Amino acid sequence: MTAMRRFQQFIDGRFEDADHGFPSLDPATGEAWATMPEAREADVDRAVEAAHRALHQGPWPALSATARGKLLYRLAELVSGNARTLAELETRDTGKIIRETSAQIAYVADYYRYYAGLADKIEGAHLPIDKPDMEVWLRREPIGVVAAIVPWNSQLFLAAVKIGPALAAGCTLVVKASEDGPAPLLEFARLVHEAGFPAGVVNVVTGFGATCGAALTRHPKVAHVAFTGGPAAARQVVRNSAENLASTSLELGGKSPFIVFADADLESAANAQVAGIFAATGQSCVAGSRLIVEASIKDRFLAILKERAERVRIGPPLEMETEVGPLCTARQRELIGEVVAQSVDAGAMLVAGGRAREGAGFFYPPTILDCSAVKAASLERELFGPVLSVLAFETEDEAVRLANDTPFGLASGVFTRDLSRAHRMIRRIRAGIVWVNTYRAVSPIAPFGGYGQSGHGREGGLAAALDFTRTKTVWLRTSDDPIPDPFVMR
Ligand code: NAD
Hints:
39% of the residues lie in helices and 21% in strands. With 490 residues, it is of the alpha/beta class. Helix 10 (266-277) crosses helix 11 (298-311). The chain binds nicotinamide-adenine-dinucleotide. Nicotinamide-adenine-dinucleotide is lined by residues 149-153, 158, 176, 178-179, 208-210, 213-214, 217, 228-230, 233, 236-237, 240, 251-253, 285, 382, 384, 410.
């Protein structure tokens, strides 16, 4: 038996054990492979105090924006240089396939590079004020200590979209890794250290939502909570942040529509649908989990998808050939099994998959449920797994109605060769992202975020860095004359 690996938390520039720890399971085997430090209230308090000190004292606030950008650039290079270790750790601890984690780490580095370049382009403004003896301008200052909370899928990426813009803006952070699969983020802290960020600028802890997460989000010295996760935890976060009146940005889940018109290139649409629901074993917030397909091509399209779903290579996530690995947790697999069973009981037709694999590990096969004639639970709940629910439509209006028939609104896909129709759909779909004839594409340059219960705030792009700032309005009187009538507001 190999020894369990032990990870440490990173607070105030030091790696340390926490008083408590918990085992992390390898999703491919279901066995514990590492011990994680469990941060509780006292650890969280020290981390926030360190971030608060680093924000106001010492070298960080004195650094120029250009110098902050250089540190971020160094971090990006270190991420690239350590890509293999990070990808392997993420795969080992979350079960996400190595093909995906190795590709994703490349654009994690790109996000840091993007925000490195942006650091000294965050500008204030001079205002054309309506008073001749005044100069008035806006300074953009860091919003304060940021609590960055991430879920278990894509932790390095979801942390990068918060850490990058927050550091570019001059903030300091306490990053809370998920209790499921925190290894890659705890390892990433070593790169923060190596890059030379002053102590306390970035702190990385992990622990459970109800203890570590709650202590962090209601801490009086936290100014902003950047949260990615599910809607239930998000509600708690908002309640907790009422204590400190911190601002929040919420990137939540989705039940994203993937709409295929009869004139679409069906091979291409099928590939995109596979990417949208089976890639990352469906554990993606933008999963295109509701296929809304024109009735005249439904059978043909489902036949292509069924063939693809059954051909997918399910296997150990660390093998490069594997296309679908295990789910991150046993409870996720259980939930998926329950909802699929309920949906079948309600009358949904199983087109592919539908039964958890026997043996070790948290595997669940690519599953397609035809829900055209029923009100299935799989259409309502975000399953965060490789389960596609199918609906059919006759008219464009019906496609729009079905697409918008969800409280979520994160992403959407439209497949058609008709340009005018594509434009109409873009206008009518209520979601933060519309992909036309493509799916699951991201870039640091393009903002990302939801409508409705998919949250608020945007990550990625220039505006994300501005969200980590607040303006200070400065009034400077240029006249040497004494101030006139002090009882009149000027
Ligand atoms: P989760 O909501 O259970 O947990 C997310 C994080 O929040 C974890 O770190 C958890 O410890 C923490 N948390 C839980 N309760 C908390 C509390 N009371 N206070 C503070 N923190 C708390 O989500 P999950 O199951 O880990 O991840 C899946 C969810 O994340 C899905 O709903 C998915 O769609 C969503 N997600 C969204 C995006 C996006 O960008 N929109 C991206 C990835 C995942």
